Each structure stands twice: as structure tokens, then as C-alpha cells.
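Each field is set out underneath.
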Amino acid sequence: MAAPLALPGALLAALLALEPKVAEPWGHCCGAHWCHLEDLGWQNGGGTAVVPFGCHLGVVWRNRRCQSCGDTSSVPTRLPSRCHHGATTPSLCPQASPSLTPVHQAGVCAFYGECGSNPEVNTSLVPSKVPCLSNTPARVAQGALLALLRSVCPEQAGGDNATSARVCCSYAQLVSLRLSVELSGAVLARCPSCARNFANLYCHNICSPDQSLFTNVTRVANYTAVPGAQAVLEYQLFYRSHYAEAAFTSCQNVRMPATGGYAISTMCGRYGAQLCTAQRWLDFQGDKNNGLAPLQIDFQLLPNGSEPGQGIAPLDAPVWGCDQAPDAEQEPCSCQDCAQACPPVVPPADPPPPFRIGRADGVLVICVLLFASLALAFLVAALCRRGKAEVAAKPRARGRSQRVSDAWQRGLERAFRRWGTLVATWPLAVLAVAVAVAAGLSAGLVTLQLTTDPVALWSAPGSRARQEKEFHDRHFGPFLRTNQVIVTAPGRPGTTAYDSVVLGTKNFSGVLAQDVLLALLELQEELAGTTAWAAGTGRNVSLQDVCYAPLNPTAPGVGDCAVSSVTQYFQNNRSRLALRGWQQDGKVQGAVDWHDHLIYCVNSPLSFKDITALELSCMAEYGGPVFPYIALGGYRESEYTEAEALIVTYSLNNFPAGDPRLEWALSWERQFLSVVRDFQRRHRHNLSVTFMAERSLEDEINRTSGEDIPVFAVSYLLVFAYIALALGEYTAWRRVLVESKVTLALGGIVVVLGAVLAAMGLLALLGLPSSLIIIEVVPFLVLAVGADNIFIFVQELQQSQREPGETREQHLGRVLAQVAPSMLLCSLSETICFLFGALSSMPAVRTFALTAALAIALDFVLQMSGFVALVALDRRRQEAGRYDLCCCCGTGEGGTARAGRGLLRPFLERCYTPVLLHPLVRPAVVLLFLFLSCAGLFLLFHVSVGLDQELALPEDSYLLEYFSAMNQYLAVGVPTYFVTTGGYNFSSENGTNAICSSSGCDTNSLTQSIQLATRYPNVSYLAIPATSWLDDFLDWLNPMVRCCRIHMSGQHQGEFCPSTSTDPSCALGQCLKRLRRPTDEEFQRFLPWFLQDRPTLHCPKGGLGAYDTSVSMDDNGTILATRFMAYQRPLRTSQEYTGALRAARALAEYITSTLRAVPGTDPDFQVFPYTVTYVYYEQYLTVVPEGLLTLALCLVPTFGVSFLLLGMDGRSSLATLLTIAMALLGTVGCMALWAVPYNAVALINLVAAVGISVEFVSHITCAFARSRQPTRVARAKEATVTMGSKVVAGVAMTNLPGVVVLAFAKARLVQIFFFRLNLIVTLLGLAHGLVFLPVLLSYVGPALQVPPGEDTPGDTVQGTGLGLANPGFKDTDVDMDRDKDKDKDKDKDKDKDKDKGRDKDKGRDKDKGKDKDKDKDKDKDKGRDKDKGKDKDKDKAKAKGSRKG
């Protein structure tokens, strides 16, 4: 998201310090520059003017042609008479004008005193007083003049003990000079050597007793106020190049804490800091059009050995390097302002290179070796076993654990049998109770709180980012709200050249055209006048009610709102944008317009006045600057006029939830979107307009969720239709309406939804909020689990035949006892799995896991009650021959349908399993899945981590275009604050030095450390150093500037005196009498004054706007918190945002450790970074390890529950665990291939994947364990055939229709994380459950504990536990065939006699029905029979009775 403009206040003054300009040379030849002849007084036919030095240095001229290149295009039409053709050295072209400064010698002045204001300067920010021409001896300075000289120009005063000195300046001139020194000192005082060197430039120019040696007056005007006096309008200054370069170098890197930029950028005109040189720096100081210089000064820089002649001696005065202290009472410049003062800096280590083994990817090599090792081990083991037939296991006695498991299992089955019979006997009463319980719990939904705030969803209240956000907002208020418009002109030509009379040729892009600027201004005017209705407070809200107004926060007008836009260079004024003027620059003249002003302002945005004839300010209407990297985008390097995008940013105040003003901001943003959308529609033919408001992202997510509700509804309808059709058993067309299960399917889905609603309602009553992701995911998950149970129960009931004398209710109870243990196994595993998942620290994951766990548990309870009751009622209806959906009518033909086998089971039995378990196919399957797992392990390291905000939006969202434009055009990232907590003493000298970055500060101070980090933006992600309220506060206290003053008398005595005040009581009222650190008392007294002082031309360091919200203090003046603002470089992806957070925290921890070492610092003191994005991206610092832990915890109950319920069967439990883990590994690999990033949303789906995989795997594992086939392969085949069809019908086919529909959702979040990921989970779960698991069990499955045809002691009618004889996986057809074959002939083929055997089994069942009461008695005494050890024939009879039961 775009950064809000938060650089008000002090910036608007940082500009002051003398805003100069460099006049573009008239022409050039071979790199040599010409100067303007008219500026030198050249007149046709005259012979007094000369070509200034440097115009043709080292160039041999012959016949007006440059000998070295032959260029004549830019040679002046006429050379001055005194510059001879063929001259090769500048000494032959002297540059002095003897008529105006005839004497050039030591002790002689060139001018003295003041001769009024310059008539050629129309607009000036300071009085444009000019000196009087006076080529006379220097005057003696004594008394007040000497005292003032000693304070302003100490080097000219001859030392502290001198009683007099010779000078060329009057007292009035010295007063004006002091003002100039104060203005420059406000910006440069943080570097004493720079400030002194810069002041000495003017001290030498104005007061040096040897002024005439290096000064040559070239143009004067009559001063009518004094007869005979002449006012100097222009003069030349001759400097040695190394002197000027040394002075420039000492100031080149001085920072401006309020902007994070360089002070030199305000002092070099259109060149800015990057292109500034010593010549351009001085030329700007001498440009009378810069708003500060009173007259024109031409600086001539001469190298050693070059002399201008006429007795002129270029100035070559001492210069202090920035790493030197000007005197014993001052310090050298700090490292931040002076590279020479920096200690050796060890650059940060490069990020570790990718893991490689040789030239190959290291992870790939390891995965290949792992696959090769596993494959080799498997093949060796398979070859060793080749030819060895698997023999049936010998009978072995059961251990204590097995007997305990058997007893528990028998009790569980007995309980389910009795419960099923009871429910079937009283179905309406049970159904009523189930409905009442579900409805009662669902009533809690009236208290449901639906969380849509991303912060509350993904960041835990106790997380570091949340705590830091709350601390920041408590002390400084919420982050500003950003509303932004990006305008481009894609259909226009690339660039057009503009020839500026003053500023040279510049290329302008198509979007920087006057009609586009006028259109943009039209939009801003409409937004300035728009109002929005706030229903909550019943009033209209305008921009000034909600905007951020840094310089007038109490009663802002529309013009006070901080709006960043290129039109702000014209103060959003149409007249100024249309303004044109006539400019003459030497011999060149022409028109100037908005192009010239814009060129100047983008290079010198802190200027109050440009150097063109327009004389416009570059400051925005609200009083602050507009930086080009904020208002323009898509330019190369610093060529701002080639920008491809115009960026308008509205910064609004933000308010905490519950504040009525928050509704004001939301209402105005809604109107903002409406106005900009209309603007976009009107200009779609010629402009591309993208935009966003602070509320846009949440609005679009909510809109998408509402629009995708029909998609989810269709998904549920498809699932319902499938279940309704698949549950039916159809024997004849006339019985279709009787045998259909539409009502039962509807009831099953209602049970699932009732469980979900009841779970959400119960959690809502407990105060736990919900979210949209729960509403979208949990029903699918519970439906997958619930539908599987529905199919297992209903199909088992359909295949089971009622025994003679058994009532309908007893029959249903017996079937429930057969299937309920397996349903309990899966439901319990998944519930515990999700409860472990609830240990996650992410609120959304935790809430989802709790809701899923509770919903699955309630679903099992409601299925055991309500759905069983519905099945009983449906069974009554079907036996009565009544229609489904209309039970009042019917055919009158009662009875149930004969058990059928469907289509899927015969396919699995005859086609699928013979191929899958073929001796040649099984090894290939194992190798294939081993390869897929190793590939998934390799791809695991290539899954991107994060969630780009574009993925949360629908494909038709207007924000997608905005985010694309933002990533393409924005040149700076979001602001990053380094926040200090309480417990630090800023007012102590040690405390101050450990924070600040100016002279005398520690080299490892807070601001110095941040500034050093910006040198390596690829590592630190910081681009602009931190603004520092403490540095500007120290500069504000500097007695050399007129910022901090106190009324010394009068009614305001002792109160603060603003810099704009002319009250005489403030004249000598500097807060500090000399440059030093303030005491504790002075610090606490003056700091509030500083924070409320409005920046002005005289005091640009005032803190109002820039820092008034950067320091939080209590009523006693104790600092509770402060912040220092830096800027990140542009960040594009989640990975970059996460890396920026990690780097900022590492830097803050280093700073914290440094500041804790300062005496008096609280051990709990802390520095932490904060920006609006950290609270969203903190999760990605830990989402990988936390996700691995969560998934591992989810797998633990899967193994544990399986181990317990499978009769302590370690092999089967390990096979289940391994298959689920491999399915997860394959899922993650497919995420990398299908561009599904890993994040908290993906983690939720992966946790759900564990639950769904349990459904695919556990049933088949249990079926394998209870099989009585003689070999592992045969048992794997039987398990796949008997349970595979139910797994496919109940899990896969329930999920797939609903998942496929999600591909048509508008929200890309749904498409990626719900369609793609759920489809991957379903298909891979199905593949591992029906392909890999049977093959794995055929190799390593548990041995047969009870050989075929033989029962161990202790087997009873109720079975031996889920491990061996779990009725939940009983297949009626197979058991009946097996009974028939055993009675008739065990050696015959069972498959050929199944149908006939079924009839004979029925007859045998009738005969055995006569002894039913005896069998029941045997059932009751099975425990005693086991201990007594009855004879083998009775045991066999009991075992047969067990299988029939």
C-alpha cells in the first residue's frame, strides 16, 4: 500500500538556507562553456568587457572555430576586443573591469555600506539590500561593530583580545549578514565546520579588508537617495578552485533530519543534491532570482597557476574539513554528515548462497540420493522375498493389552447396539431432542461476532506485532489513512523535448502535459468540495473534517490538508498553472511557463521561489514541500520530467474503532471512490486512472464474499443431489419413488449443517468470534466426514439382512454396532487432530481448528442420534411402501430392496485390484509413490511463503489495476518508525548523544545506525534515513539562530518568543547563551515549545507538523515514547515485506542493546520498528516452523487413536501415519507446481487435509486388519474391494463436485486456496488411500492373528475387537458366501457359488433362528466361556454365530 505523505512542518523551512540557481551557459564547444556577454557589460563597439574566465579555458580559437573539434554551432558571434584570437591561456583574457574596481590590492574595499534595495529584484524572502560602490581603504571596526563582527565573523575580528580590526562592511551590512548566517545556520549548524566555512564565504565577500583583491564590480546603478552614490548590482568573485571545493565538500553530506535528505539539495537549485558541484553551489548562492540573494554574484573558480590579471588575487582562505572542529568548544561533524568522520564500516554479509553440492542444487541431490536409497532398499527386500509364499500365521495367545482392548471393544459394541435399538424404537422423541439441542446451541449465533479485520484474523492479541501496534497507537494515534490516485497516459507519445530559456533542454513525458494537469486539478477541486453523509452522527463530512493538516491541526481549512500532487507545485491554482512570462538570460530570451517552474521544483522542492520570471513558490498549498518521488512515478534516475505516472495522495487522520470520527473518514472515503470512479469514466478515452482508498481492500473482500455465496450454494446443492441419488437402491421403476433417499440425504446434510451452526453458536456464546473462512471451509470439511459416515451406515444397513425373529429396531441397532466403532475412530482422530491444531498462535487458525473440532464432535453425536432416528423413520416408510418426499402416498407394496452390489464394487473386484496387486505392478506403485514423496520433499523448498494482497481480490476488482500501477511506478516504500519505549533519559548528555546524529553525537547512536543501514538497502530494506526530532531540537536551541527565544521583559516575560516576533524584549533572549547541550531542566522546559513552534523562514526547525506527534509526554513532561521515521525502499512481494520486517527488527535489537548501555537506562527499555504492514507479515516469520509443528501435532492423535482402536496394532497404525504424511508431502509439492503459496490460509487447508486423509486411509487400514484372508495380498484386495467403494462414494465423490464448482468463484483467494488446494487434497488422498495404501499393506501389513477356519480361545459372538473382527467393516455378501463355503466344501471356489450360497445361507439362518434364544445366552456368557475353554466344536459354533450377528 502506498505511503502517506507524512513529512510536513520542518521541511517547509529546511529549504531556506539560500536557494540558488545555476544559469545555463550560452553554448559550448568541446566541453568548454561560454558565458553571457551582456552580463559582463559587453556592448557593440566597446572594448571594456571581457570573456569571463572559464568560458574558453584551454581551447585554441582561430577564426571563431574550435580547433580541436571544429564546432562552430555554439561559438559567440563576436569575441570581446581584449580577448585575442589564438590565446591559449586565461591570463591573456583578464576579467576585471578597471572602470568599476580600478584598484585591486590588500587593505582596499570594492564596496561598503548599504545603498537601498535592488530595483531588479521584484520578490525576495529577505530584504534585498545592496552595497555601495566604494573602491576605498578598509575601515576600522571598534566597539559595537567589533563585537558584532566577533559574533558573526570571528575570523575577521582578529581574535578575542583584539581591540580593533579593519573591515569593508558597515554595522548595517553586518546585521544583514547575521540574518543570512542565521538562515544558513538553521540548516547547517549540525555540522559546525560546514556552518563556519559557509559563513566565512560571506564574511570574506562582505567584510574582508582585502575585499578588492578577489572582487570585481561589473555593474552598478545610481542611488538617488545619496548624491553620487552608486549601488552595486553585480560583481565577480575570484576563488581558488581547491578553496571552493574544500568548502563545498565540508557541506556536501550534511543531512536534514526533517526530510532524511541532504541540506545541499536546498542550496543548489535545479541540480539538487545528486548533480550539485562546487561551481553550481556557489552560482546558486549568487543568483538574484533565488529569493534570498540581494544581487547577482558571478563566482569564478581558478585552478592553481591561473591568474586573472589586473592585480586580482583569487581568495584562498583556510577551510575546516568536516572531520575537524572549528574551535576547542565544538566537535567535528558526525558520521552522518561527514563520510571522513565515519569509523571503518564493515558491510553486512551477503545473504548465504543457495545450498549446492558441486554445481547441482543441494536439496535436489539429497532428494535424489534419498529416493535411490529407499528404492534400492525396497528392491533388495522385494527380491529377497521373491518366490517365498506367504504362509498363514500360527495361532497365538492374546496378550494382556489385547484382552483389555477386546473387553473395551465388546463394551463399546454392546453400548452402540443398545443405543441404536433405543433410537430406532423412539425415533421422533430422539429426533426432537437432537433438533432442540442443535437449535439451542445455534441460537448462540445471535451473539456471533464476524471478524473481518485482517489484523484480528492473522495476528494474535499477544503477538509482538500486535503489542507494538497497540503501544504505537496508544501514544501516537493510529497510522494515517491513505487514499491515492495514479494517472497515466498510455496512448500519448513517449517524450517531447522542451527548451527552457533558463534551465536548458528537458524531455517531458506524455502525461506531463497541461491538459492532463488541468484534468488532475479538476479532480482535486471536485474532491476538495465534495461532502459525504455520515449517518451515525447525522452530518455532512467534508475533506477538512478528516484530512491530515500538519501545520494547522486544530482548525484546518481545505488548503491546510496534506495533499501530495504535482499540481501542488502551483498550489493547486489554475491561474498559476496558466501563467507565462518573458525571460531574458544574457543574449538568450524567450517565454517561460509551467514547464520551467516544474523543472525547477522537482529538483528543488523546498524552494519558496523559483529562478524564472514567474517567481512562483514550489511549496504546496498547505505549507509543506511536495517531493517528486512521492508525486511522480515511472522515471529513470532523477529525470523526473520523464515520469510516466502522476500520483495524488490524500492523507487522512485515522481513529480507533468506536470513535465516531472513524465513520466520518469511512464516509468521505466512500465518496472519494465515487468521485474518482466518475473521473475515470469521463477520461477513459485518453487517460488510465487507477485508485484506492484505505477502506478499499476490506470493501472488495466483503463484496467478493457476498458475490461468491451463490457459488457455495451451488456447490452444496451438487453435493446434496449426489448424496440423494447415491444413497438410493433401485430395483424397479415402479419403486423408484419408494426406494429413493432424497429425504434421508437432505436430513443428513441438515445434520451436518446443524453441527456446524451449533458449534459456531456455542463458541459465540463463549465469546469466540468467527470469520468468513470458517463459514466457507468448515461445512465442506464436516460434510466430507459426515457424508462418509452416512454412506457407510446406510449402505451397510442396505446390505445387511434381518435375522429371523429380529425386529426392525434390533436390526438397526445391530448394524449400528457394526459401523459405529469405525465412525468413532475417524471422528475422534479428527477431533483430537483439530484440537491440537488449535494450539496455533494465529487467531484465524486457532478459531478454525476449534470450530472444526467441535463441529466434527457434534456431527458424530447428531448422527448417532438424529440421523439414526431419520434412518429408522425412513426404514418404516420404505417397508410401508410409501413415497419419498410424500410419505402420505405410496404403492402399498412394502418391504425393503434386495441388497445390491452397485457398479463401483464389481469394478474394483474384477478390474482394479487384480491389476493393482499384480506382482509386477506392486513394486512399480511403491517406486512411483516414493518418487512422488521425494519430489514433494524437493518442491517443499520451492513453495513461496506469503500472501500478496492481490490474491485476496476478485479478478474484476479495480484494486488489481491499482496494485499493478503501484508496483510499477512508486519510487518509495512505506514509512517505518523506530519507536522508543519509556525508561530512557533523553535529557542527559549521554542519553542525547546516544540518540542524535549531529556534531558531538555517538558514532553508534540510534539515528547514525539507521543512516548506516540505508547505505545497504538491499539488506536493510531502508532507503531514506530517519527523521530526528532530537537533532532538530538541538539545532533549534542553537544560539546562532533565532528559533528559541524568551521574552526578557514585559507582560510575557519568561514565555516563548516566536522567531517571527519583533518584540524588543526578545532581542537578547536566546534560550542558550552558547552552543551546548541543554540541562535536564532546560530540556523539559524547551521541548514543548519546540514541538509547537511553527516553521518559518527565520526558523525552519520548528517542530509543529514534523514532530508534534513524534514525542509522547505525560503531564510532568516525562517522555513516555518517541518515534523516528525512516522510509523503506519499494517493496513488491510478501517475501520482501517479511524480509524488511526481519531486517528492521534486527536493527532495532542492535540499537536497543546500545541504548541500554547508557547510564540510567531502564533494563526494560526497548526500541522496536513499526509500520502499518508489520502486523500482517509477522506471521510469515514463524508460519513455516509453526505450520510444521501444527501438522505434526495433528498426526500424533491419528497414530495414537488408530493404535488404541486397532488393538495395539503398531504396523497398521504406522502404515496409516506414513500414508497420511506422504499425502501431505505430495500436497505441498503440488502447491509449488500450481503456484499456491504457503500461508495461514494454506495451513488451515493443510490441517483440514489431515482430517480428510484420515477418512481415505483409516477405513481401509481397519478393513485390512479385520480380514481373515490367508495372505496379505488377499487381505489387501478384500479391504480395497469392501471399503474402497464406500470411501470413493462417501469421501471423494462428496468432495469433488463441490470443489470443482469453486473454480468459478470470483475471489482468487477461493480459487487458489479452496479450489486448487482442496482438489489437490482430495485427489492425492484418494490416490494414497486406494493405490498406495493397499500395496503398502500387502508388503508390510500386520500378520494374520487368527488363521482361516480356526479361532483362538476367547473369541466370542461379539468379535475380538476392531483389530481382527470389527463389524464396522463387515461385508454381508462376503460373510454369507464364506459361511456357505465352510459348511459345504472349503476347497471350492467361493466366487462361483456366491449367489447360490446366499439362498442356502438364508435357509440355514431360518433353522438357526429356532435356537436364537440359546445363541443370545451364549452371547451373554462369552466372557466365562473364554476362561473355561470349551471344546473346539462349540467354539466354532460360537464363531459362526458371531459372524452371523
About this structure: Residues 1-97, 1347-1445 have pLDDT under 50 and may be disordered. The first strand starts at residue 28 and ends at 29.
